[in-house]
Amino acid sequence: MRWRRATTTKGNVRTSLSPEVDRRVEAWFVSRGLPHLIPSYSASRDVLTRAAPLLVVVFVVECVTAVREGSAIWLNAVIVLAGFGVALGAWAGLNRLRRRPTWARPDRVGAPELVAFVVVPALTRWVLHESNPLRIIGGNLALVVAIYGGTSYGVVPLARWAFVRLGRQFQELVALLARALPLLLLAVTFFFLTGEVWQLVGGLYGPSYWLTLALFAAVGVIFVLLRVPLELAQLSKFETWADVRRELAGTPLEHEPFAGIDPPVVEPPTTRERANAMLILVFSQGVQTLAVVAMIFGFLTLFGIVAMQPSTVENYILREPHLLAEWTLLGERSVSEELLRVVGFLAAFSGLYFTVVGLTDQLFRAEFVESVLKEIRQAMAVRAAHRLLRSADQLGATGPG
After folding, report:
1. What angle do CA 109, 113, 116 make, to 5 degrees?
2. From CA 285, how far away is CA 295, in angstroms rounded?
3. Most buried by CB count within 10 Å: which residue of 7, 328, 347, 378?
């Protein structure tokens, strides 16, 4: 939604919001992985439409690559041209359905476009290639869900923000690990040298192994989600507009004049806005946990290469290990599949332990979690001031009454 620049006066304070500042605020929310804090944020206009070029490329590729293996070149050429024709026909038909120029680029992605993206390539392959359309439909549905979720919640800028924070706090994180995880390292090293662990993990193959690791991650995420909602509810509440003003330092609204009646009456965050804010904590905690998992994985892998001979591994798992690499350096060294499986299992367990400690240990909370909560608090202050300025602009643009 576009707002004309408008000016209102409340007391002696001039309240105004220019389109440029409005765009900077929206970009500020997106860069922090909080796009849902933007007023009038629309899935069809702001999310899927931005992903339209990618959807178009996938759509065309799926339609024109329905070739038959072993068929004559001329027949495959005809199939490719037919698929390309189907893609162009679907594009033109959707534009005519929306009463737009036949070959215009889509200005929004809604239900008709999504249905065409999911179904048309599958039907094209079914007719031209006699392949099972359900596989293409399922893959396209999964792609749409992934694109929508990733774009809607700003996963890429959110991950960038979380990794930048991790880089700034890496020294503090290492120092905290040195204080908080000595018992864990001792326990993990002990389990690493226990034959029962090797036999247990050695029996997990394929989906069973990855589901076990995913279970550790899921329990960690659930633990975070169960502890944060009560704290998030308080972050969007301000006693005065002066409290809001103090939180705006370093934001696009830092120097914008505004005034409001105390106490601030701000629309409570919606379910999506709360979920977006909770995702900030999950991502921040997740990136820190991944750093811990990577360090423990590297330590145990190095320890296993140095200390675990193939004969030792064979005694643990009661069969010959599957060696992935072996070399001679100060003795015989090797890396086995079983070693990496055990290391991955223990590293994932360590990640779960670190997540629990991170949310319950007061020292960790003071150095890491509280800083994230402060950034969410600042985002809620920007949200409150931004909506106040937008409401003033709307009033100025429409006039009284």
Report:
1. 160
2. 16
3. 347
Q: What are the C-alpha distances in Å from 335 to residues 309, 314, 342?
A: 9, 13, 12
**Crossing angle between the packed helical segments 207-227 and 271-307, to the nearest 10 degrees:** 130
Q: In the numeric block, which tokens belong to residue 279? A: 């995702």
* Alpha helix ranges (H) inside 98-132: 111-129
- Contact in structure between 157 and 33 (CB atoms under 8 Å): yes
Nearest to 260 by CA among 389, 379, 377, 383: 389
Q: Note whether 162 and 287 are within 8 A (CB).
A: yes
Give, as one character, the DSSP assignment of residue 357. Answer: H
> Among positive and negative, which fits the CA dihedral 353, 359, 363, 367?
positive
User: What is the residue-level pLDDT of the chain in tens, covering all 401 positions?
Assistant: 333 333 443 333 334 578 888 888 888 888 887 888 888 776 556 566 666 777 777 777 776 676 666 566 766 677 667 766 776 777 777 777 777 777 676 666 667 777 777 777 777 777 766 667 777 788 888 888 877 777 777 677 777 777 776 676 666 666 666 666 677 777 788 888 888 888 888 777 778 889 989 999 898 888 877 776 666 777 888 888 888 899 998 898 888 887 777 788 778 888 888 888 888 878 777 887 888 888 889 888 988 888 888 888 888 888 888 878 877 777 677 888 888 888 999 999 888 888 887 777 676 666 667 778 888 889 899 998 888 887 765 444 434 33
- Could you tell me whether strands 7-10 and 332-336 are parallel, antiparallel, or unpaired per DSSP bridges? unpaired
Residue pair 343/209 in contact (Cβ under 8 Å)? The answer is no
* For the chain, the helix, strand and coil percentages under 3-state DSSP, each to the nearest 5: 70, 5, 25
Asked whether the beta carbons of 286 and 354 are under 8 A apart, the reply is no
At residue 298, the 3 state secondary structure works out as helix
- For residue 132, the surrounding DSSP H or E stretch is none
CB-based burial of residue 239 (10 Å sphere; 0-12 exposed, 13-18 middle, 19+ buried)?
exposed
d(CA 218, CA 88): 43
Task: Say how far apart CA 401 and CA 391 lie, in whole Å.
Answer: 14
What span, in angstroms and rounded, lies between the C-alpha atoms of 142 and 124? 19
Does residue 155 sit in helix, strand or coil?
helix
